[in-house]
Each structure stands twice: as structure tokens, then as C-alpha cells.
Amino acid sequence: MRSLKLTLAYEGTRFVGWQRQADGTSIQGLLEAILGDIDGAPVAVAGAGRTDAGVHALGQVASCTLASALDADTLRKALNARLPADVRVLAVDDVPQAFHARFSAKGKRYRYVLANGPMVSPFAARFTWQVPGRLDVTAMQQAAAHLVGTHDFSAFQSTGTDVVHAVRTVTLAEIADLTDEPPTPLPAQAVPGGRLLAFEVAANGFLRHMVRALAGTLVEVGLRRRDPDLRALFESANRALAGPTAPAHGLWLVEVNY
Amino acid sequence: MRSLKLTLAYEGTRFVGWQRQADGTSIQGLLEAILGDIDGAPVAVAGAGRTDAGVHALGQVASCTLASALDADTLRKALNARLPADVRVLAVDDVPQAFHARFSAKGKRYRYVLANGPMVSPFAARFTWQVPGRLDVTAMQQAAAHLVGTHDFSAFQSTGTDVVHAVRTVTLAEIADLTDEPPTPLPAQAVPGGRLLAFEVAANGFLRHMVRALAGTLVEVGLRRRDPDLRALFESANRALAGPTAPAHGLWLVEVNY
Predict the structure, then answer these.
(1) Are the CB atoms for B220 and B189 separated by under 8 Å?
(2) B29: which of A69, B20, B91, B157 fits an S-S bond (Cβ 3.0–4.6 Å)?
(3) Do A107-257 and A2-95 have the same topology in CATH?
(4) Residue A80 has pLDDT above 70, yes or no
């Protein structure tokens, strides 16, 4: 058996998310079905991050062990030939036996994209959260700066999850104005008469719905409904005190680092 | 009653097409429902072109007569507030009573986009037809040049349609390489390791499936399965002699001229 690392991009709109579920199409389920056919035996695929329904990925990473002796690039082509067009395998690499997409990850980077204007292009709507109101970007930047460092992020994880250890180290948290250079997959003129803003965040790990809760909180700061000093939220460890969970479709998993 | 011209963009993926149908969501049906609510009476909306299911529009034009006295930009905002995010009204203009989106049109421009390479970005797949094989672009250019002028396009219209008069005047027909500057709604790096090609075509009118039949024929020329001299096809007036109808999702209605 060999260990493989798969690097993937997907348009999350029509999936139930990364993770296999009883109903609906998941990226994990698609990969396991195809790799299982190749090996003639069940194959378990682990993902670096369990992206929710509607979340997009530019560089998700998955791992599995496989018996097949096909070379890595042939496997990549075989997967792409059978996957639907909204999921592409960008790379397949042989890796040491101990490699695991989630447990070996040193960190991940996400982008949460805001369409700040009166209208969003019908070709950008799947990838952005429209916030029509005026946003104080300076206040959002100040708030984002408070996220950098090692904190208890309990106030930013979904209730109902039972993660004991909610301390994470955020290495990047900033608000970027992408209006003039919309990154893939956004078209030019994504927000006519408005701005395209992104919350760029990297950490050694993320709690469930953490980026979306952070984005919802930063938007409240931008709308001047909340103070930019978020430190009391860390201390409270109380999800009810932070902002709402921003919609899934504005979130992109950008890359995973090992 | 006043006459209105609506300019629209839409992402055609999930629609049954422009035209209202018994089942499924159409752009015409959405507009008629909202405008009917605004007027409190049925409103008929005419479109310049009946785009098929999956066809995208950057600048579709529609017309209607309306009793409402709301000013044009307020109507635009009211429509966008109620339309789904994959349809946007770009402009609403008051026009002379005689204006009709279809009958007043002097011409239309379409773009058919080919992803010529081994892999298509999952963010470009909705907007392109993937043709992995090597394409002879020079031969395609030669063939496209034969389309310009006034011809009987019977060989390029769907069988089953009973248009008596199939003579149309094509004013632009060329193959463009868009690899380095992918137009909206395509992302950068739409075809990693390949080319993004477009068949750009403008005419005073189009028959049913005409652009898709032309695109299918030009691809056969590009694959060197067909001679670039298309003149015999005009003379034959025989749909069976031309190439296949290319898939709907590679087609964009770019603009309508009046």
C-alpha cells in the first residue's frame, strides 16, 4: 500500500460539503467511490478541512492509502476523467506512509469574500456575501489585528460541537480590498459601483464555522454595530456574544500547509 | 401604459432557458411574475433572444409595457431585490411605445467559448465546452471567414423548426484566443496548460441553435475532420451535413443592438 496526497479545487455550490453524508453529493464520497473502483476495495479518503455545503476550495488537500500501482499523474487523469466538472484534482503526489491530510497539516488559509455594494454580478454571487451597507474598513482592520496570536476561540465555534480544546494560533488576519484585482474564481466587475473585500485568515487549525463566525463579527464591526476590540469575546468564550455565522458561499479554502 | 427596455445578465446553469415553460424556472417567467405583482395585472415580457437552458447572458434585452409610474431606476432596484442572485437587471430604460426587444433588434452578438486543453478549472466549466484535442486555429479562422455575409443558414438550424426564411447576414465571425485575458465571467487560469478560444459571431438574426451548430462545425474543422470551406453547406441547406450542436453551456449572449 502507498500513501497519496491529493490537491483539489471545487465549486462547492451543489455539494453537501466535503464530508460524506447519508443524502446528497459530497466531494469525499465522489473520491472514495472512484478510488474504490480503481483498487477494487473500499478506500477511505481524509480531508484537511471539512468544508460545509456551498464552501469553495482552491487548494483542499486529501490523503488516502491505495494498492494501485498506477503512477501519480495517471491517477490524477483517471480521477478527473470520472469526477464531475465542478471538482478537479490539481495534483496527486506520493507521500511518506505517515502523511495524513488533517493531522499532518501545519496550517490552513481561508478567504471570506464580501461584495460591498448595491449590486453583485450574477457571476460573482456564488462566491461572495453581499453586504450593501457602508463598511468601515479601518475598524474591520483593527478588529482583524486582534485575532492574530494564540487565543481561545470558543466564542467563534458552532454551539453543539464538543471540541474541548478551542485554543488556536492565528498567523494572518487582515482585510484586503480586491476590487481592482478580483482573484480566481471572481470575474472582473464583480461588484459594479461597489467594493470587493476579503477577510484573509490563516491559522494552525480552525474550529467548526470559525471563519464564518469571525466574518459575521467583522461585518458587525464594519457596520459600526460592534467595537473593534474583540478581546472581551475571547475571555467570554461565549458564542452568543459574537456575531452571526456568515453564509457558507462567501468562504473559500485557499490552501493547506504541511 | 409606458414601454420599458430591460438589460439583463444571467448565469444560465439552473434555468430552463429564457422562455417560460410548463416546468422549471425561466428568466421570462421570473420577470413576468415580479412585474405582474408591481402592476397588479399580468405583464408580458418579450426577450431579444430565446436563450436555451444553460446558455448565459451578459447583455440580454427584454421589453414590456407597464402601468406603474415608478421611475426606471427604482424599478431596476425593485426587480433586483426580488430576483434570485443569478439574474441581475443591469438597466431599465423608458423607450418609445413601438420598441420591442425582438422585432426592434438590428442584430445580436454571441460568444461560444472553447476550453482547449487537458483540464478545465472547476470555476470555468459552466461557461465553456472542453475540447481536449489539438485544434488547428488557422483552419477554424478560415472557416469562420466563410460565414461572414448573407447566406442561407438552413444547414445550421435545428431540425424540427419551421422557419421558412433561413437567410441571415453575419457581420462578424472570428476565432479569438482569450487565454491571456479571459473575459467575464471566466477566472484567470481557466484552462491550465491549455488555451481558451472563442468563436465571436454577430448577425442581424439567428436561427434556433445556429451558433451552437456553427461552433460544432468549426470544432470539426479545428480537429481536421472537415474542410474549412463551408460554402457547400450553405448550398446543401441540409442540417445533417453540418457538425453537431455544441453544448449549451459554452454559449453566451453578449449583446443586442438596436
Answers:
(1) no
(2) B20
(3) yes
(4) yes
